[in-house]
């Protein structure tokens, strides 16, 4: 891409003293550049030189098993009664946003939490993180599973643990691992697995009936992507969070994502270290919903964290200094690989992005102060946004979007989603469809580090919580748009033209010379605001920005699929070439690319059913 020089000089603030831990609002730009996560990010950037000298060869004999299991753990069969929602993707997405501030309170029209709990969990996981199909090379025994949640390289580092607070008659209280290969649960612990955890997090309301803990096994991804794998594990966490969010909403349950928690305590509490799992997110689930939403209120009121914890399995509890491991854990994890290579850079960045209880408390207090009265106009742009033509107001109408949907049910869209491998280089897209894709995918989500935008009288209001990801578009074949580079202002719902000229060659070159980046209708670069994120969350912002990008990515996949288009995420890109081309300010970095178009069918492959039992036919 040509050299663009739109950014002005940035004044670097004086460095704060390093003698004491930095509070969120005292972190400076200089601190950011010296932070462990930023050092990792720069060390794992792709360059043209690195790409040409890349000598890594995959050791197929040590390819990690994508399916974790716990041998000897009691098995709980999940029912195969799968719901098919009458809402399409866009209707489900709107409902999810409207219900984003649901408290953990059963409404009169909501099902009791004990009714069909096992069926709910079965449906939640089937439409959230389950196998969607198998692909097989024709004439061979070479086959592999696809899942409803996207994953870099289809390596799936993410695992799901289901925590139940009390006996329901159909499922006992405890902690369970989701055995995705068979769509079953494996019981790891007996007893209330939710209440001690919730109290430790400082949540004083009644404990929700179900909590998910999403973990990541980094070496699954590192087998192929080496040091850069930590980035992709965070993307995949965002993919899974989006998939589960939509799944829960379509089933009539509300949810909240918790990313601010003491990592080591949660890992020990759930026995995750036995299988090299790292906890990355907690998902709180409760039946029922409400349409009330105040964009300036906290998604979760976590003003304090419990100074003690109740040990799991001991009624009445025993006060301890930390969240006690329940133990003994049932089942032994299977060996996932014959050889695990340790990448010190991944270990260092993971350690740097962890929180202990004091960190959680400090971040929460400062976060509450910061978000009070935040204005949409205060959102910083990632670089100079100078219009090279008329700014385009994206007229968004959910009813028309729903009419354009090719799938009658959101569940059909979820199960049909695929990652394109090649685009045909011919098929375009309407501006209307591009609008539906962008707006539906960037409404935010309910989390303690993220907020949800609000639709009031046809107008969007930005969440009080900071979104950390911005989108730039390389438009190739969109009816009604001149080919060029555009900035999508997700807060104003506009497209700002920055360069009106062919972007195909540059899009390809900066996406590691992959044709798929230029052979579609348009492609996207997602830009993280690490400066703002670091000020709020410290090194943890690295995870949160990638979660947000992954969440947006999963929604981009789904909206494209619902409208009859194809998409794929691109994790391989030449970082600084994109940063320079977009003239990004310091502290703003590209973290994910995406492309949309018409996929080329590969006749060498055939598709097989996801499981050996009957599933909905779409």
List keywords for this structure.
single chain; 618 residues; alpha+beta; NADH Oxidase; 2 domains; seven-stranded antiparallel beta sheet; 18 helices; 27 strands; 28% helix
Q: Can you walk me through this structure?
A:
With 618 residues, the protein is of the alpha+beta class. The protein has 2 domains: 46-57 and 375-597, NADH Oxidase (3-Layer(aba) Sandwich), CATH 3.40.109.10; 65-370, NADH Oxidase, CATH 3.40.109.10. The chain is built from 18 helices and 27 strands. The strands form 8 sheets. Strands 2-7-6-5-8-10-9 form a 7-stranded antiparallel beta sheet, sandwiched between helices. Strand 18 (454-456) and strand 19 (459-461) form a beta hairpin. Helix 4 (89-98) runs antiparallel to helix 12 (398-404), helix 7 crosses helix 8 and helix 13 (410-416) crosses helix 17. The longest helix is centred in the middle third of the chain and has 22 residues, at 229-250. Mean pLDDT is 87; it is low at 2-22, 102-110 and 290-320.
Briefly characterize the structure.
With 618 residues, the chain is an alpha+beta fold. It is built from 18 helices and 27 strands.
Fraction of helical residues: 25-40%
- Give the mean pLDDT: 87
CATH C-level class of the largest domain is: Alpha Beta
Number of domains as seen in the coordinates: 2
């Amino acid at each position: 891409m040509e050299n663009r020089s739109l950014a002005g000089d940035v004044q670097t603030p004086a460095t704060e003293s390093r003698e004491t831990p930095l509070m969120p609002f005292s972190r400076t730009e200089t601190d950011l550049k010296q932070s462990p996560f930023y050092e990792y990010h720069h060390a794992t950037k792709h360059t043209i030189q690195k790409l040409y000298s890349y000598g890594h060869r995959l050791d197929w004999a040590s390819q990690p098993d994508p399916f974790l299991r716990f041998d000897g753990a009691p098995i709980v069969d999940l029912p195969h009664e799968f719901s098919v929602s009458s809402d399409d993707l866009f209707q489900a997405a709107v409902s999810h946003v409207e219900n984003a501030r649901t408290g953990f309170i059963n409404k009169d029209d909501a099902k009791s939490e004990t009714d069909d709990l096992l069926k709910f969990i079965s449906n939640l996981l089937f439409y959230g993180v389950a196998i969607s199909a198998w692909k097989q090379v024709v004439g061979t025994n070479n086959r592999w599973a696809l899942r409803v949640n996207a994953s870099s390289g289809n390596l799936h580092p993410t695992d799901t643990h289901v925590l139940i607070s009390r006996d329901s008659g159909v499922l006992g209280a405890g902690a369970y691992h989701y055995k995705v290969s068979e769509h079953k649960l494996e019981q790891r612990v007996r007893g209330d697995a939710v209440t001690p955890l919730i109290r430790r997090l400082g949540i004083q309301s009644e404990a929700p009936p179900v909590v998910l803990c999403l973990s990541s096994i980094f070496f699954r991804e590192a087998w192929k992507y080496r040091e850069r794998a930590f980035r992709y594990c965070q993307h995949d966490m965002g993919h899974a969070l989006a998939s589960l969010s939509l799944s829960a909403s379509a089933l009539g349950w509300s949810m909240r994502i918790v990313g601010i928690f003491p990592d080591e305590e949660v890992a020990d509490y759930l026995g995750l270290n036995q299988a090299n799992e790292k906890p990355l997110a907690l998902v709180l689930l409760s039946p029922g919903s409400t349409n009330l939403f105040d964009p300036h209120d906290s998604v979760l009121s976590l003003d304090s964290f419990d100074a003690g914890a109740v040990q799991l399995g001991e009624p009445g509890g025993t006060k301890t200094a930390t969240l006690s491991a329940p133990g003994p854990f049932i089942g032994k994890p299977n060996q996932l690989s014959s050889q695990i290579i340790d990448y010190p850079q991944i270990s260092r960045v993971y350690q740097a992005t962890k929180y202990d209880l004091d960190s959680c408390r400090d971040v929460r207090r400062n976060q509450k102060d910061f978000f009070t009265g935040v204005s949409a106009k205060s959102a910083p742009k990632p670089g100079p946004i100078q219009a090279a033509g008329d700014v385009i107001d994206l007229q968004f109408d959910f009813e028309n979007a729903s009419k354009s949907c090719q799938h009658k049910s959101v569940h059909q869209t979820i199960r049909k989603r695929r990652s394109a491998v090649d685009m045909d280089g011919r098929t375009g897209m309407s501006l209307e469809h591009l609008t539906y894709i962008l707006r539906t995918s960037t409404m935010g989500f309910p989390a303690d580090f993220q907020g949800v935008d609000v639709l009031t009288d046809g107008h969007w209001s930005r969440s009080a919580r900071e979104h950390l990801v911005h989108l730039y578009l390389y438009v190739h074949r969109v009816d009604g748009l001149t080919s060029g580079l555009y900035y999508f202002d997700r807060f104003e719902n506009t497209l700002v033209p920055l360069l009106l000229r062919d972007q195909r060659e540059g899009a390809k070159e900066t996406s590691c010379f992959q044709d798929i980046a230029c052979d579609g209708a348009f492609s996207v670069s997602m830009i993280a605001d690490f400066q703002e994120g670091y000020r709020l969350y410290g090194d943890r912002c690295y995870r949160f920005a990638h979660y947000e990008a992954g969440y947006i990515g999963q929604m981009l996949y789904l909206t494209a699929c619902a409208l009859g288009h194809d998409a794929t995420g691109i994790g391989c890109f030449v970082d600084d070439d994109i940063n320079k081309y977009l003239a990004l300010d310091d502290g703003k970095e590209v973290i994910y690319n995406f492309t949309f178009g018409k996929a080329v069918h590969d006749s060498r492959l055939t598709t097989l059913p996801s499981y050996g039992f009957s599933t909905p036919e779409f």
